[in-house]
Each structure stands twice: as structure tokens, then as C-alpha cells.
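task queued by scheduler; priority normal; single chain, no ligands, no partner chains; default sampling; output format set to C-alpha cells
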Amino acid sequence: MSNEEKNEKKSRPFLRWLTVIVAGLVVGAGLAVLFIAIKTGNKQNKSVMKSDVESELEERGDSYDSDDAVPHSASSTMKVSSSDVSDIVDSVLPSVVSVTCKSEVESNAFDDLFGYDFGYDFDIPKQIVETTSTGTGFIIGQNGNELLIATNNHVVEGAKSVNVEFVDSTTADAVIKGADAFYDVAVLSVDMSQLKEETIEKIKIATIGNSDDVKVGAMSIAIGNSLGYGQSVTVGYISALNRNVKKSDGSVMQLMQTDTIINSGNSGGPLLNVFGEVIGITSSKYGGTASGSKTEGMCFAIPITQVVPIINELMNRVELSPAEVGYLGIEGKEVSDSYAKSFKMPKGLYIYSVEKDSAADVAGLRAGDIITAINGRSISTMDELKEILQYKKYDTEIEVTYSTIGAKGYEEYTITVKLGKKSYFSNEGNW
């Protein structure tokens, strides 16, 4: 064997080991690159947080890729997220209006001059001053040539004139079709002959949701004429439900609490869920207070389901002559809080007299019964009963919910009553 052959034989094991080492380095480098890529991809996915809104979409049947933190909507045509509600706003804005009211108040010129109320110590005549206030409303229906808008009662209460501005900045005069001071709701009517075809094509009726389905922690969106500057949008969450909030007259309303900012001018506007449905009517009047000061992030809205019966009642009101007004035939008195608590009585209108052969008498209502609602609308005073009946024609059927004392305390019933006519011999205080 030659020396060359011996050297070649000796070098073969070295070359094999060198090949193995190089191959190992190549494979190792490839695995390292793949590992880094996978880790980087995982970090990028983990940095995307699934929003609360997207979670709600998931419950409505949307599909998700199990390895992907970002959901892919399968059934929803409106892409929403906790950081972008623009699609909802674009959809709802055509149903929202700004409300401007002109009112007249008495003012003492001397008091105004010095910015202090000196009372009546000075024989100075009062002067009438015109004031302007702003609020919000939303379109709830159309009745022939009549466009109907919901808002707060306190927005339009005492107004001499009401003007509304639509999404395209067109304005129109409105009249108060009906209002309910206790529930703080009002319905405005706009004669559509004032509107151009272009405006009619741009506006639309709001979609009403169900506030009974709302859960604490759900996202809420408010649209309103904040501070009178025009429509603005705020976003937050439902903080609490069924909050008992005392009004200035001492009565209590159950409201939704939200941290969605509701400023002056927002009153009467819609509070929306993530699907653009109205779940409440916002009101800056009931902002949270603590020790007499405004509490940050504590705002309230009237649950929409609570006031739907009242809104329907106000929407369908028709002015009647005294001879046409329906008559129930009772006289009653409010059950006070102290009586309700002391005698375990339901809050409502206590009947202490029923006119013989009247609609109430024929239907079986008796003295001692307590009427709690008419057509689903809670009542507790004769004024509230009058407010309802003065827009109901005789021979109209109404649903009366009442409680009567039984062996186990008060029991609740609902009956249908056909209204009659008030006769010449009827007691003046009866309705």
C-alpha cells in the first residue's frame, strides 16, 4: 500500500465527523430560527386583548379560532370593539336629535343687577326674561304625518316653544304631545310637512332594546347634545341596576347607574348597548352626589323597559272635549310611604268611594281596593289618574291593576274596565 493510500484512509474518519458536525450546526441553526419565530408570534398574539364587546359577540354565536386571541365575527355585520364604536354611532346618529327650548321666567331687575335675591323688600316690578335650554331626544315612531320623539320631561317642562335639530342640521318646530313628570319622560311631535325629502331619507327610528336583559359590567354608549355644543359620544359600562334615586319632590325612581359621562344637554338622549339598541334614557338631572358635590363617574339613566308603557300612552294621545272624556267613577287618595310601611299596603291609589253604576262599580272595584296601575302605568294619585283618563274616550277599554285585602294580606288582580261617561250628578272630584 502506497503512502498516499495510507494517508487517504486515515483522513476518511475525520471527514465523516466533520460532515456530521456541519450538518448538526445547520439543523441546530434552523431549529433556533423556528423557535424564535414561534416565540415572537406567540408574544404578538398575547399582546392583543380580547375586548368585552367581542366577548358579547361570542355569546351571540360568533366563531373563534382556538389558537387566535382575536375573534372573527361570523354572524354580525357590525364590527365592534371596546376601543371603536364608530359603526354603532354611524347607525344610531340618524335617530338622535338636539332639542332647544325657549321659556319665560319672572325676574326682578334689581336682583339681577347685583346677582342676589333680595326678596320682596323692595317695591320693584318683576320683568319677564326669556331663557334657552338644551337637551337631546331620539325618534321613536311615525304616526301618519307626525314624527314622534322621546325625551325627558324636565327638558321641555314649561317651554313656550320647542325646536329640534336632525342629523343633517335641519331644524323644525315641535310640540309637546304628552309628558309624565313622575317618570320624567315626554313625547314631542313634529309635523313632517316641515321637512324636506332629503332630511326624511336621512333620519330613522331608533331600535328599542330590553333594559331587563342588561347586566352589570356591560358596555354602554351615550349620544347627546352635551352642553348644547352638538351631538357627542361617550362610552362606559353599566355600574349598577335598580338604584333607588330620590328626586327633588321626595319621590324615588329606580334607575340604571353607569360611568358613561352624561353632561348637561345629554338629558333625554339614548343610552345604547353594543348592538345599537336603546336601553335607557339618559338624564344629567340625576347625577350622583356625595356631601352635596358631584360624584365623578356616577351617572344615571331611566331603564327603557320601565317607561315603554308610558311612552306608548303619550304617543297615542288624542285631545278630547270634556263630553268625550272617559269616566271610571272613583274617588281616592295616595297611599303614603308611612301608611304603606306601617300597614303593609301596596303603594297606589286607595279607593274610598265608588260611584253606583259607574264603570268601576260594574267592573267590581270596591272601596278599600288600591289601584296600582292603568294599562301597565303605575299610578298613586288622583292627578295621575286624571292625566291618563283625560285622553281616553268613553267606551274605551283599559286594564286596571289593583290590590284587595284578603285572608293572607293584599292580593293583586288585573281586570278590563270599559270607561263610561261622567253624568251631571257625578261628584266633581271623581274620575
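post-processing summary
- Residues 1-36 form one domain.
- Residues 3-9, 35-77, 289-293 have pLDDT under 50 and may be disordered.
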